[in-house]
Design a protein that fits this description.
heterodimer, A: 195 residues, mainly alpha, B: 158 residues, CHAD domain
Chain lengths: 195, 158
Amino acid sequence: MRARPVKGLEPDGPFSDNARRIVKVRVDELYALAPKALDVDRPKKLHDLRIAAKRLRYVLEIARPALGKGAADGVRTAKALQQLLGDIHDCDEMLPRVQAHAADRRAADVDDLTRRAGRNARDLKPGLAPAAAGADRNRGLETLAAHLAARRRVLFARFEREWIRLEARDFRGTLLAAISPPEPEAPVPADGGAR
Amino acid sequence: MAKAKPIRGLAPDTRFRDAAAAAVSVRAAEVFTFADAALDLSDIEGVHDMRVATRRLRAALEVFAPCFPRKAHAGVLKEVKALADRLGERRDPDVAIEELEAMAKEFAPADRPGVAGLVDELRAEQAVANDTVARALAEVQENGLAERLEDLAEAARA
């Protein structure tokens, strides 16, 4: 996923102003991607959201000297979100791999049992099945696939809850307020403010 | 995972281009300090450290993009991404193996051989990916990526 371009950056301008501009685009990008990522059947959108969280985290880390402590909470939140989405992504990557591996092994067992039955066999005795070369190995792969599918579901439900929490505490608004430039101090009246 | 080296002298009012030069210079040097450790198959942390360092460098190149000469920046960024991809291919089986082995310990003994078979497959990929990383590192050395990153940092200051 290509990052949204950030307009108006000034190489000769201060680090802090430019950093704020980038953070604003990155956090808006995160929020724009979230609704589609919350659709459980769209893993690609979830992956995009993970990348957006990563980009936000990195710009906040890089810009910490310019944005001060205000960036720290943003880093923690983006990192935690990125981690959670990464765990879900790992399930999305590993599950098809386990299924493909199991299918390969099953195919090897089919070949093995066919060979054992003999060239002119009229039928296959069920009693031969447990003797297939990979019979024991396939069982563990089914267990693993079930674990990964269930873990994905559990983690996704956690992501839904986490996102609701982020919105409830107005993560975006709080972050942008925390990194906004300090208010200029009000001029002290000539009489020192005495009444 | 190695902590990122601090980038000294950055402040809110530092010129964006000076921050760019400092960040890319420090992050680039960091990447190449892990080159030898990354090829050590016996320790999975070496490749992880180099991958993380490469990610940090890539992030700096992207954040500070407007401060660099466009063409030189695009070329260097492409090479850093390619290196990061190769390191990722090498790192992914490390992580998967670690996780699968931890899961297998929690499974019933009868289910463990199935997971072990998959781990064997991943180990074979790990060895292939290690050769790919070795080639990628040799390539960046031949192409003088470290020097060009330093030139890019200098150009940002101009």
